[in-house]
Amino acid sequence: MTFFGLAAVNDLQPGKKAKSVLNRWKDLLFSVFAFPFVVLLFWTIFAYDRELVYPATIDAFFPPWINHAMHTFVLPVLLGEVLVQPHTYPQMKHALAALLVVGLAYLSIVWVYLTVGVWVYPLLGHFSAAGLLGFFFFNMTVVTLLYVLGDRLNSHVW
């Protein structure tokens, strides 16, 4: 959502300088945060055991079409973005730094558990401390590989 909002604002900017700064931010958001990690991780876990990421009880509050809007529809939109808009991917060290910042911020879900006693994603309750560390490391590895894949795909198309 943030990426597409920034892209719209970027297209409306009249000045070249403002547009170039927004373009860099837009490209950073797209290349590091928007590429389909959520789609891949969510549907992989959902296919294994739905209750671990999206319990059936949630359907009473969020109908299945909202689930698909959040976890499915973004994939064709992102792939379409790759095909119609070239992006300048940041240097690997900048991308890794941004991924690390987001990964560390995402660890705030552990704070939610420590404060409230409920895991944001039921899957996390099945891990030991070492398992959680391994799971987060695995996720960061997948995100990094998706960054490289996105960069290669962008280079191939453009």
TrEMBL record:
Source organism phylogeny: Eukaryota, Metazoa, Chordata, Craniata, Vertebrata
Pfam families xref list: Far-17a_AIG1
Keyword field contains Transcription regulation: no
The entry's keywords: Membrane, Transmembrane, Transmembrane helix
A GO cellular component annotation in the UniProt record: endomembrane system
Subcellular location: Endomembrane system
Annotated protein name in UniProt: Androgen-dependent TFPI-regulating protein-like
InterPro entries cross-referenced by the UniProt entry: ADTRP_AIG1
Top-level lineage group: Eukaryota
Regions crossing the membrane: 28-48, 68-84, 96-121, 127-149
Keyword match Repressor: no
Primary localisation category: membrane
Family: Belongs to the AIG1 family.
Reactions listed under catalytic activity: 13-octadecanoyloxy-octadecanoate + H2O = 13-hydroxy-octadecanoate + octadecanoate + H(+); 12-octadecanoyloxy-octadecanoate + H2O = 12-hydroxyoctadecanoate + octadecanoate + H(+); 9-(9Z-hexadecenoyloxy)-octadecanoate + H2O = (9Z)-hexadecenoate + 9-hydroxy-octadecanoate + H(+); 12-hexadecanoyloxy-octadecanoate + H2O = 12-hydroxyoctadecanoate + hexadecanoate + H(+)
